[in-house]
Design goal:
Elements: H1 3-25, H2 29-36, H3 40-47, H4 55-64, H5 69-89
Amino acid sequence: MDKDNERILLANVIGECIKSLQLDKNINQKELALLSGVSERSLRRIENSWLPLTMENFFKMAAIFEVRPEYLLQELARVTQRKWSRKGED
């Protein structure tokens, strides 16, 4: 897999994690925007893999969702590994 595809895959996983945590914590997009200082438009773009998540916002999201940054990294690794495995099956 080339670097561009890896970046796209990671962006997809990050977006999925944010959406999942929003559902788990019952936080809508407007609330997340207010809490994070990221506009709703930018949040939608991050969730849809059109905009990368900065490290600063990564740590903000962890704090908002009350999870350790390590948890988010583990989730990224878990989901990414699963997706890479499926890509090899194609």
